[in-house]
Amino acid sequence: MKRLSEERAKILFEKLAKFIGPNVKQLIDRPDGTYCFREHRDRVYYVSEKILKLAETFNPNQLVCVGTCFGKFTKSNKLKLHITALTYLAPYAQYKIWVKPSFEQQFLYGNHVPKSGLGRITENTPQYAGTVVYSMSDMPLGFGVAARSTADCKLADPLATVCFHQADIGEYIRSEDTLF
Length: 180
Hints:
Strand content: 25-35%
Number of domains: 2
Number of strands: 12
Number of helices: 7
Distance between the termini: 17 Å
CATH class of the largest domain: Alpha Beta
CATH topology of the largest domain: Nuclear Transport Factor 2, Chain: A
Shape: elongated
C-alpha cells in the first residue's frame, strides 16, 4: 500500500468533490478515527490509519487489499469510482436523484434515467454534476451524472435523459467474474 502521488491525489479529490463537494474533509476526519486513501495495484482504498499500521507488517506482494476499494485508475490516468464507495459517499451527497419504483429495475440493469423515471431531484442541481441515485424509499442505488439541470428537467420531454448512469448496485451480479 503506497501513498497516492500528488497528481493522483488531485484526481481523486476532484472526483470526490464532484459528488460530495466540501464534505470530503468529513471522510478523512471521522469521529471514529482518521482515515486515509492508499493505492495498491492502481486501485484506491479508503482505510483507517489503525488498520493501515497493521497492514504494513505484511509483504505488499502478499496483500490483496486493505480497506474499502473506492475506485480504479485507468491506463489513461482517470479514476473510475466503484460501487463499493456508495455507502461512504451517499450520506454526504450534494445532489440527489430519486427514481420511481417502476424504474428502479431499469437503472439497476445499467440504463440511464429518463424524465419519465424521475421521482424527485435536488433543487439547483447543475448540468453534468455528480449525483447519487436513490430509490423513493431513500436507498442509494448508484452513481450518475445529471444530464440536465433541475430547471431543464421540468421542461424536458418524458423520454429525455435526465441522468447518465455511471455505476449501480446491480454491478455485483452483472460483473461478478471480472471485479477482482
